[in-house]
Design a protein that fits this description.
The protein is mostly helical and about 100 residues long. The protein has one domain. The protein is built from four helices and no strands. It has helices spanning about 5-20, 30-45, 50-75, 85-100. The longest helix has 26 residues, at about 50-75. The protein is elongated, with a radius of gyration of 22 Å. This is MADF domain-containing protein.
Length: about 100
């Protein structure tokens, strides 16, 4: 039987990667961090998962994220801004200046 990741398992994977941070391991050191992630994920899901499956899934998720970001940039034609606070503060400042004059 082939194991397929679900959205919930992807979320658990991301939480474990953030918690254990296998990317902080010194290059050339034994890959114990990845086996720790695999063990934690296997315990959480109840399915035996190895390090290669985790690294392959992470590579796939990163590729999907990059493709989605590129599609969003192409679709809008302009860079998307998530800083709506500055836009609102601009209007507040304008109103304050109008009242003070």
């Amino acid at each position: 039987m082939v194991f397929r990741f679900t959205n919930d398992q992807d979320k658990v994977l991301m939480r474990e990667l953030l918690r254990l941070n296998p990317f902080s391991a010194v290059r050339g050191s034994p890959p114990n961090m990845w086996s720790d992630v695999a063990g934690s994920l296997s315990s959480a899901t109840g399915v035996q998962i190895n390090e290669k499956q985790i690294r392959d899934r992470l590579t796939l998720l990163k590729g999907m994220y990059k493709n989605a970001e590129a599609a969003a940039a192409r679709g809008s034609g302009i860079e998307e801004s998530v800083d709506a606070v500055n836009v609102q503060s601009h209007y507040d400042e304008r109103e304050r200046l109008a009242v003070n004059t």
